[in-house]
Amino acid sequence: MPEISGTDVKNLTVACDAGMGSSVMLTSQLKRRLGRYGVTVTHAPIASIPADAQVVLCHEGLAERARSVAPHAVVVPFRLFMGDPAFAALEKAIKDGGTIAG
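-> structure tokens emitted (102 positions)
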């Protein structure tokens, strides 16, 4: 299972498949929260995860697909689009240099 130090994260992709706009709102929120740490946050469909994505954030129902499309990246699944504990844990690891594992 891939892992990365939070201080090494420069590219994070929010991947989706539903097309309902929730992941776009999440991307916008994470750009504000993680941009101060030098992290570029992008949005992409599951099938088009960029090759430079170090961390992929996606709904737990899409995690296995994300891992198959981007085996090079750490996939961080979440349940809730707003306020999921995974977001705070991810930000803390990036801020403090903790390990992010997928």
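The two ends are 6 Å apart (CA to CA).
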